[in-house]
Specification:
Fumarase C, Chain A, domain 2, Fumarase C, Chain B, domain 1, mainly alpha, 6 strands, 2 domains, two-stranded antiparallel sheet, two-stranded parallel sheet, single chain, 7% strand, 11 helices, 300 residues
């Protein structure tokens, strides 16, 4: 078990000199990955439950660790948790606090596990949750757009190419184009879920662990479909992150596209639509102006 009486970094006995301030800034990711606290704590709870099931830790130690982790979760939710950059990331910040709460037995939480498989597990869990949320929002967007399209089948508008009037078309037909885009967005996110559904937990730092762990148990409890196949690939794989970012970028482009067109149509030059006062703002110097709020979003 790792001992940490003075709450120093766990590699303190190997590395004697104090880390430079510059390297601390470069190496620390806590300002970003602190958002993963729920996933990190969930993964740790399921991990220690598996360790107990496999008779690697005792019932008492399992309960103490879970008690401490739930206490930490409540502290973070209530903004009473102090994130320390000296501990680099969310994993070590939570473990450090766990030592404060339950003592040296907190070291068992790291049995048969590394930050390498821990971070991939956290990110996959977060992305699975985010993907499901995006999917629900796309469903609402598709439904509302479809209702608007149905009401405007016989609403005729000018179709533009290069901002020049080209052909007349149904506004409903125009809106259906975006439904096609949003359906493709849904499919992209759904396809990415296959890669997100492989459980990285248990491959440890690189080549697994000698402890008799049960990866099928953690896979089921964490909501994955199956464990990953190769430990080397697992700890280095970030393909799923690129897939997620690409999916978000394409979907955002579609939303930005329709937003920009509504802004253009609302302009004095086109004067095709009038946006509700709920989604416009004014000018600090020209009171006659109404500006679209979505324009501000697009500029960021």
């Amino acid at each position: 078990m790792v001992k940490n009486k003075n709450n120093k970094a766990f590699w303190n006995k190997r590395i004697k000199k104090k880390t430079s301030i510059l390297y601390q800034k470069v190496g620390s990711s806590i300002e970003i990955d602190k958002k993963l606290y729920k996933e990190d704590i969930l993964g740790s709870i399921i991990h220690v439950e598996m360790l107990f099931k496999q008779k690697i830790i005792s019932f008492k130690i399992k309960n103490k660790i879970i008690y401490g982790l739930n206490k930490i979760k409540n502290e973070i939710i209530k903004n009473k948790f102090e994130f320390d950059k000296n501990y680099e990331d969310i994993h070590m910040n939570i473990e450090k606090r766990l030592f404060d709460i339950i003592g040296e037995e907190a070291g068992y939480v790291h049995t048969g596990r590394s930050r390498n498989d821990q971070v991939v597990t956290d990110v996959k869990l977060w992305m699975k949750s985010a993907t499901k949320e995006i999917d629900k929002k796309l469903d609402k967007l598709i439904s509302s757009t479809l209702r608007l399209a149905e009401k405007n089948i016989y609403t005729i508008m000018p179709g533009f190419t290069h901002l020049k009037s080209a052909q007349a078309l149904s506004f409903g037909h125009y809106l259906m184009a975006y439904i096609e885009m949003f359906i493709r967005d849904k499919k992209r996110f759904q396809n990415s879920m296959e890669n997100l559904n492989e459980n990285p937990l248990g491959v440890s730092a690189l080549t697994g662990t000698s402890f008799n762990i049960d990866r099928n148990y953690t896979t089921k409890k964490l909501g994955f479909k199956n464990p990953t196949n190769n430990s080397v690939d697992t700890v280095s794989d970030r393909d799923f992150v690129i897939d997620f970012l690409y999916n978000c970028s394409v979907c955002s482009m579609h939303i930005s596209r329709i937003s920009e067109e509504l802004i253009i149509w609302n302009s004095n030059a086109f004067n095709l639509i009038k946006l509700s006062d709920k989604v416009v703002t004014g000018s600090s110097i020209m009171p006659q102006k109404k500006k679209s709020r979505s324009f501000r979003v697009l500029k960021r």
